[in-house]
Q: What sequence folds into this?
């Protein structure tokens, strides 16, 4: 079994719970646990790149139509 930190209620330290793994190697989680995603650095990169691309597109459109 693998240790996994569960979210706390805000006042206490997060509790540690164990993830159950079946014989087939599948991880067994509740529906709430399965829906929770982890935001990593890739999300920040995607948001930054998309914002920069959108700014460039607006700058090109402004240059073509306003000037």
A:
């Amino acid at each position: 079994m693998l240790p996994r930190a569960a979210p706390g209620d805000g006042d206490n330290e997060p509790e540690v719970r164990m993830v159950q793994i079946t014989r087939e190697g599948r991880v067994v989680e509740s529906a709430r646990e399965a829906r929770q995603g982890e935001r990593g650095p890739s999300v920040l990169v995607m948001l930054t790149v998309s914002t920069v691309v959108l700014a460039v597109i607006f700058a090109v459109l402004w240059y073509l139509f306003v000037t």
